[in-house]
Design goal:
The protein is of the alpha/beta class. It is built from 10 helices and 10 strands.
């Protein structure tokens, strides 16, 4: 479903600040895989995600989704293939619009605009049932402004918006990093359920090793713009933070120094 072929990205080339962010990256993600990505600061996690989303262009290489070479597609054109949830809960919704209006916008993505009633009674019932499964009380607040919601509620709403029209690939950009631990666990629980029920191909960048191990069916670790660990199946299921640290040190030849990732 997603393929990255020999992608390279360097920031500030030819200057004293030159930084190789992605160094000849090759990756294939199969349809329905849930991949978590971990790495230290500057490892290339967010750069890789932004390259897939089209927020950053590549210096060389290809990005292919569902057989289509989208390397030169602008960000807005890729939007029809991708769902994305950002780290900042403020970025995924229109704060001055109601919950049901935000969902209606997401449901109509890619459809022609016309003059008709905005949201039907049947649509509201559908939204109410979907939100009810989150157990956050949002099903009774459809007319509330999205800007009045807590960070966790907004991330849950953004998740639903990103997946209403099943995307080819769901991109989760450290989407629980700004939440307290209890709320983060709830949002991850909702994430697991949505991904499983819809069979979504998912790419989740996280700063938390425990979350990277606990969620998804495949784990990638990046270092200096390269994949140094690729774990799946039973190997991933039996992984612990301590084992992962040892594997990192063996593969990279250095100690993992991101305390936030280790401690969660």
């Amino acid at each position: 479903m997603l393929e990255i072929r020999n992608v390279r990205k360097t920031f500030f080339p030819g200057t004293i600040n030159e930084k190789v962010a992605i160094a000849g990256l090759d990756l294939k993600i199969e349809d329905g895989e849930f991949v978590t990505v971990i790495g230290g600061n500057g490892a290339g996690k967010s750069t890789m995600l932004n390259i897939i989303a089209g927020s950053l262009s590549v210096d060389s290489g290809q990005v292919i989704i569902d057989g289509q070479d989208i390397t030169r597609w602008p960000e807005y054109k890729r939007a029809k293939l991708l769902g994305r949830v950002f780290q900042d809960p403020m970025m995924g919704t229109a704060p001055s619009m109601q919950i049901d209006e935000n969902l209606a916008i997401a449901a109509r993505r890619g459809q022609p605009r016309g003059l008709k009633w905005g949201i039907t009674k049947e649509e509201r019932e559908t939204y109410r049932e979907l939100l009810k499964s989150f157990d956050l009380g949002l099903e009774d607040r459809l007319s509330a402004k999205a800007g009045l919601l807590s960070g966790g509620q907004r991330q849950a709403l953004t998740l639903l918006m990103a997946t209403l029209k099943k995307p080819k690939v769901l991109l989760l950009d450290e989407h629980t990093a700004a939440l307290d631990p209890k709320t983060a666990d709830k949002v991850l629980e909702i994430t697991d359920r949505i991904v499983a029920e819809s069979g979504l191909t998912t790419f989740m960048v996280t700063h938390n090793m425990r979350d990277a191990i606990r969620h998804g069916n495949r784990l990638l670790m990046l270092n200096e713009g390269k994949i140094i660990l690729d774990l799946k199946g039973e190997e991933k299921q039996k992984m612990t933070v301590e084992k992962l640290l040892k594997r990192f040190e063996k593969a990279s030849g250095e100690a993992f120094t991101n305390d936030a990732a280790i401690l969660g």
